[in-house]
Design goal:
MetI-like fold, mainly alpha
Length: 281
């Protein structure tokens, strides 16, 4: 009963934030497009048509065509699938690593905490983009490599959040009660502390997807991300650089898609953060 009341309060707070609702609507729409892309794309996103090279937006090609005659709308829709997949998987890896390491550091508070948090400090001291560039240069660019590298270099923020929550919750009465009846450490961490420490993790996950999409787009733009002919918003944008002066649509639509998607995720994440914060009326 109390859980249902809390959920209703959070939902009402979220609905009052119109920007967050708009952001959530765009995120859901993009997710639907990405999932349905194999069935709704008007053309094969990799099909070359020399008779349709660099055609401006028209009824047949609403977003125009590129320098190989490929339909930009179809490539954008398929690119949404790739970009969102990279975002979700990369942030999922980072979240799992961060939750595990942050929970261990916050609960045991010994040499293990010092080891984990000093390693996190070292990772944070290295600019993540250049670290990712270095790793990709060694292992080679591909979609799966991008997912893994972004994930294993982005866990530090969520680890700090989870550690702080564990430090706060470990001294609460319900945890002390669980210890007094003989509950083991694993049960206390997983059943009593972790469910109450996940609120900031939800926000991190949403905001992290936007960051991962932006990072993947930047890497693909530089030729170190998802490799052609597989379309992603970053390499679509990169392919339009040489013809930017005569084919404005090749850089405008991918750029707008990246901007709107990242903005929507940030608005949604901020809305969830405010809805979950009991200090905000």
């Amino acid at each position: 009963m109390l859980k249902n009341i809390t959920e209703n309060i959070v939902w009402r707070r979220f609905r009052k934030n119109q920007l967050a609702v708009y952001g959530g609507t765009v995120v859901i729409a993009l997710f639907i497009v990405a999932m349905a892309a194999p069935f709704i794309v008007p053309y094969d996103p990799s099909a070359i048509d020399v008779a349709s090279i660099l055609r401006p937006p028209s009824f047949m090609h609403p977003l125009g065509t590129d320098d190989l005659g490929r339909d930009v709308l179809s490539r954008m829709m398929w690119g949404a699938r790739i970009s969102l997949a990279v975002g979700f998987v990369a942030v999922g890896i980072a979240t799992i690593l961060g939750v595990i390491l942050g929970a261990l550091a916050g609960y045991y508070r010994s040499w293990l905490e010092s080891l984990i948090m000093r390693f996190a400090d070292i990772m944070l001291a290295i600019p993540s983009f250049f670290l990712i560039l270095t790793v990709i240069a060694f292992i080679g660019p591909s979609m799966w490599n991008i997912m893994v590298v972004i994930g294993v270099t982005s866990w530090m923020g969520v680890a700090r959040l989870v550690r702080a929550e564990f430090l706060s919750l470990a001294e609460r009465e319900f945890v002390l009660a669980a210890k007094s009846i003989g509950a083991n450490n694993a049960r206390i961490m997983l059943r009593h502390i972790l469910p109450n420490a996940l609120s900031p993790v939800y926000v991190y996950f949403i905001l992290g997807i936007a960051g991962a999409i932006l990072l993947e787009s930047a890497l693909s733009f530089l030729g170190l991300g998802v490799q052609p002919p597989v379309p992603s918003w970053g390499n679509i944008l990169a392919s339009g650089r040489e013809n930017m002066e005569i084919a404005w649509w090749l850089v405008t639509f991918p750029g707008v898609a990246i901007f709107v998607t990242c903005l929507s995720y940030y608005l949604l994440g901020e809305g969830i953060r405010e809805a979950l914060d009991p200090k905000i009326k």
